[in-house]
Specification:
The protein has helices at residues 96-102, 145-149, and strands at residues 29-30, 36-37, 55-65, 70-80, 84-94, 108-121, 131-141, 156-172, 175-186, 205-215, 220-227, 241-251, 254-262, 273-282. By secondary structure, the chain is mainly β. It has a single domain (27-280), classed as monomeric porin ompg (Porin), CATH 2.40.160. The two termini are 22 Å apart.
């Protein structure tokens, strides 16, 4: 899912600079919840290419298609001074096969996600510390009937996360290597699309997330992501997510990410593997 591949820097020890300002690709792509970072998770980087005293911004659209389900996301993020980021995403989850088989009252679910991210310390490349950011995402489910019927306890809630990102020059057999790790505090069911908390458990969990990307040259990167999920609802299991992605960054103004996503069981339907495509414009 939306993989934000800050793959910014070239290969072979050469950094790719796009005009003035921050290095090409250090603004990353946009995650499914609107924050700068990977496709299925945010990273510590901030949206756009603004430096100290400057604004940067992203707009994006993403689609994930598994055959049984479809998720469409659109949103915007803005950052000031490479220090603080504000984001908004609207998610629409088409229930497809499940809605037809169970004759559900709604055939889709939607959610709004408001995000805030603050860079606390470090730098992606130049500091001894990795770039470390603290994030908050407030989510509100807009179609709560189906989630309430399957055991969700509330229609809105907030996630918190701590993210650390580091680009290691020449770290993968001469290719630049990007590493990211998150620790999330959440009780969202399927990102919150199935509400928050459940009949099995109704408390926040500490969840692990991680990403690895190899920058093949100035514009291309490949990598993997993993996101641990809670398991709050008794009507169906909730699988951890993973993806394998390729990102293309032709300039500071455009990013395209294509991924194969393994999403496991979603709302009783197993083997939900599919294609993820995201297009982002940056300013």
């Amino acid at each position: 899912m939306r993989l934000t591949y800050l793959l910014g820097l070239c290969l072979c020890g050469e950094l790719a600079v796009a005009g003035e300002g921050r290095l090409l690709v250090t603004g990353g792509a946009t995650s499914l919840e609107g924050a700068a970072g990977g496709g299925i998770m945010p990273w510590a980087v901030l949206a756009g290419y603004g430096e100290r005293g400057e604004w940067g911004a992203d707009v994006f659209v993403t689609r994930v298609e598994t055959g049984d389900y479809r998720l469409d996301v659109a949103g915007v993020a803005a950052a000031y001074g490479n220090r603080i980021e504000l984001s908004y995403a609207r998610q629409r989850f088409d229930l497809g096969t499940l809605a037809r088989d169970l004759r559900l009252p709604d055939n889709s679910l939607s959610q709004d996600v408001l995000g805030l991210k603050l860079r606390l310390a470090g730098d992606l490349i130049y500091d001894r510390l990795p770039q470390i950011s603290l994030g908050l995402q407030h989510k509100r489910q807009r179609d709560f009937l189906v989630p309430s019927l399957v055991g969700a306890q509330r229609r809105e809630d907030s996630d918190g996360y701590l993210a650390a990102s580091r680009l290691i020059l020449g770290g993968a057999f001469g290719y630049n290597l990007l590493l990211n790790a998150n620790l999330r505090y959440s009780r969202a069911n399927e990102l919150g699309l199935l509400g928050f908390g459940g009949d099995r458990r109704d408390r926040h969990s500490w969840l692990k997330e991680g990403s690895v990307a190899v920058l093949l040259d100035r514009h291309w990167a490949v990598g993997i992501e993993y996101r641990e999920k809670p398991d709050n609802l008794s009507f169906a299991g909730e699988s951890d997510w993973a993806d394998l992605f390729v990102g293309y960054f032709p300039s500071k103004n455009l990013a395209v990410v294509l991924a194969y996503a393994r999403l496991g069981e979603i709302a009783t339907l197993d083997n939900q593997d599919g294609v993820y495509l995201s297009v982002q414009g940056s300013f």
